[in-house]
Amino acid sequence: MTDTQTIASMRPATTQDVADILMDAASKGEPLVVRGNGTRVGLGNPVAATRVLELGGLDQIDFYDPDDLVIRAGVGATLDNLEQVLAEKGQYLPFEPPRYAGLYGTNGARSTLGGAVSTALSGPRRILTGAVRDFVLGVEGVNGQGDVFKAGGRTMKNVTGYDISKLVTGANGTLAALTMLTIKVLPAPRAEVTLVLPAATLEEDVALFARMRALPLGIGGLVRRVNAAGVCEVLVRVEGTVPGVAGNQQVLNGLLGARGGMVVLEQAQSHALWAGVRELDCLNAKPDELVWRVNLPATTMPTFVEQARKAGCINRFFVDWAGGVVFSTMRGVQPEVDTLRYRKMAEKAGARATILRAPDAVRAQFGAFPPVSAGVAALAARTRTAFDPAGILNPGRMTVQA
Amino acid sequence: MQMPEPSQAIISQRDALAQGLRQIVGKDWVISDDAQRRPYQCDGITAYMAMPLLVVLPGCADEVQAVLRFCNEKGVKIVPRGSGTSLSGGALPLEDGVLLVTSRLCNVLAVDEHNRVARVQPGVPNIKITEAVSHLGLCYMPDPSSQLISTIGGNVAENAGGVHCLKYGVTANHILGMQAVLMTGEMVELGGAYLGAAEGELDLMGVLTGSEGLLAVVTEIAVRLEPVPEVARVISMSFPSVEEACACVGAIIGVGVIPAGLEFMDRKVLDAVSVLIKEKFDDRTAALLLCELDGTAVEVDALVGVVSDVARAQGAIELKVSTTEEERQRIWSSRKLAFSAIGKLCPDYYCTDGTIPRNKLPEVLNKMADMSKKYGLDYANCFHAGDGNLHPIIMYDAAKPGDLEKAEEFGADVLIACVDAGGVLSGEHGIGVEKRDLMTHQFTEIDLQQQQMVKCAFDPKDLLNPGKMFPTLCRCAEFGRMHVHNGNLRFADIPRF
């Protein structure tokens, strides 16, 4: 699952090198695949380009200021490296970036910060701490004309010019080749436990999620999944200070006790469990299966899942974000037919269905990302032109060309 | 401060334009006479005034669409305005522009308790959202101090912050979806009423938030609701020096605590406030920090202990911890009254909102003391220390010739010092007209050009709130044709206002 027929890679080590490459490509109107180390190479639509601009070489940490909760690093800095540096000071990347290396058969140790920001993938903690976009304070990048620009800053609050940092987050490299990112970090919670309890029906579990979230209990993960032993279970991650977690756990015991069969996983076990949840391990996606993510209001999720399963569009699935996202596999027997049906079903439910993994041909035909209205598509196209008039940066990565 | 030259051709069509707009919104909702337009001459910055060509108050999103389409066709500029509390002149009218006021779009349209989302119109005052959901134990978190009056639409335009955004984030972190109308009258729906509704396409909602009314007029907003924290307690911490208070800010965050709010007040502010609250502060106190901690009772008790230990280690001479809600409110009253207390000390004051890395607080505060001597103007400091968001209060007398100009220069020097310390011109008030001409200090020509290109994608005729945020007008046509390499100053000879 690679971009079509890429033959040559360029791996610059400085922002100026990136600018030179892009100025040259712009003058020739030559499209480029822009990526970090290519560990999420099956995400988004395939790009028709013969050369790859790989930004993984821009991997230096520029500064890290723990007292100011801010780190600035090259886009090629690996998430593993950053997380280790932050952990030494008791801090973390709050958006819990997934690598999805298992999904794409790549090496997750090489997943970069730039990739995390460009794909805007947020982990299970999103319901508590927020999404990637909430933590990108400032950016430096090179637009499609080879101009180096910066936007945002390093402070927590900033209304100085348009929030270009948000615009490039999740743009999948279609606006600029990012070179440097300034990220807000947070103190990692001192304590963490996970309560595991037997699942009930989807409706009952979603209602339970809502009841728990109505209380300020520091719940940083609410999942319903089938575990390795084939048992359907609910996972509740509680985080905070040591006494805070103990207190919140007691409140939850009262709320959840009626279900019975609760198991408590302490710090280390809990940590390992959620690393797997983040990577969609429990989907156990087979190589020939498609993998989907559907975002939707939690309350409409049970009906949607039930219908999609009946229609054969969902093979295995699990629910994250307190019911607000469904990750699922789809049999690869008739991917074109099922893709169309699943998308339609999602659209009817007011949901957004994204293909996380599928053969190139499927993504090229239907688009990895769900379609948007004509007006939004046109506005996004004009915005892309504002950064990349020649259309050389990952053309077609996010939108299916008409 | 100079604005773009008003178009006499447009001004001469005032009566015809008023008539056209009355056909859209009804005759009562277009204000054209002098007496009724006068209250709209300025926003929260009273130093800048202009009489709007006309004031229009649409009653629904369709009318907003029609008004924009009409003005776009006639080439008439639009300045959007909520309650007019902007502290950067973002809603400063244009003499040849229509002021589009959102006051009539003031309904909370729907509350979805289970998915914890409210859909609201832009003219809803911030506080009304929380009031509409408080019976469910929910609230809308961002709380700018203007929240009783300022509208959610204005909050979106300025990406408003507030005392509690240290822990809970600013407006942008709480918006899930929006409906917006472009200058052409075209309506777009961005995101939706759930997490992740905007994913898979460019984050246009993200760039609209904080765009100061230059890109589109927002007609509906879906906001996230949060459970109200069970308990909140505040610690008042006195320090014998500004430096020690500043150091304590970094130390609290460094130890892993994110307070709900962390505010700084200097001695001048305390003296002014003590008159109002009839309470004396310890003579040795040079600066006071207010640190609010919230969460469950157990959690908060633990954090109060941690923060108190840090404060003592950093040299705090007196700690007061609220034990009841009444006490908490009383301790906060000093901060809440700060600006009105200062207002009683001087005929006028001027306040900006440059933001800096927290560890640069002592350095920039020291520079401010030097500037005060240079300009011969007194100042006081009362700000969101936890975010490094400064609010220097520069005292002057508008009746004294030259005083306003000196205050403005003092303010500009502070902002330049903020940028030089690695910070930004504005943390929460926005650029507007006030800081517009300083943008070139923070950004290169290329940075600004890239931002203005975004403006071209949304509003190629530059009719929405022109003259704000950027020191030069947008030149969409030129951008399309020309390309100059890094470092070369473009359009070196064009007029700047």
Secondary structure elements and pairings:
The complex is a heterodimer of chains A (402) and B (497).
Chain A lengths: L7 E3 L4 H14 L3 E4 L15 E4 L6 E5 L4 E5 L4 H9 L3 E2 L8 H4 L8 H7 L6 H4 L6 E8 L4 E5 L11 H5 L7 E9 L1 E2 L3 E8 L3 H12 L5 E8 L5 E9 L1 H15 L6 E3 L1 H12 L11 E6 L5 H10 L6 E4 L4 E6 L4 H14 L3 E6 L2 H7 L7 H14 L15
Parallel strand pairs in A: 1-3, 2-3
Antiparallel strand pairs in A: 4-5, 5-9, 6-10, 7-8, 7-9, 11-13, 11-14, 12-13, 15-17, 15-18, 16-17
Chain B lengths: L7 H4 L2 H12 L4 E2 L2 H4 L16 E3 L4 H14 L2 E5 L15 E5 L6 E5 L4 E4 L5 H8 L4 E2 L12 H7 L6 H4 L6 E7 L5 E5 L12 H5 L8 E8 L1 E2 L3 E9 L2 H13 L6 E6 H11 L9 E9 L1 H17 L4 E4 L3 H12 L1 H6 L4 E4 L9 H15 L3 E5 L8 E5 L6 H18 L18 H4 L2 H14 L17 H6 L16
Helix pairs in contact in B: 2-4, 14-15
Q: What structural keywords apply?
A:
heterodimer; A: 402 residues; alpha+beta; Uridine Diphospho-n-acetylenolpyruvylglucosamine Reductase, domain 3; Alpha-Beta Plaits; 3 domains; 5-stranded antiparallel β-sheet; 4-stranded antiparallel β-sheet; 13 helices; 18 strands; 32% helix; globular; B: 497 residues; Uridine Diphospho-n-acetylenolpyruvylglucosamine Reductase, domain 2; 4 domains; 7-stranded antiparallel β-sheet; 18 helices; flavoprotein (chain A); FAD-linked_Oxase-like_C (chain A); FAD-bd_PCMH-like_sf (chain A); Oxid_FAD_bind_N (chain A); FAD (chain A)
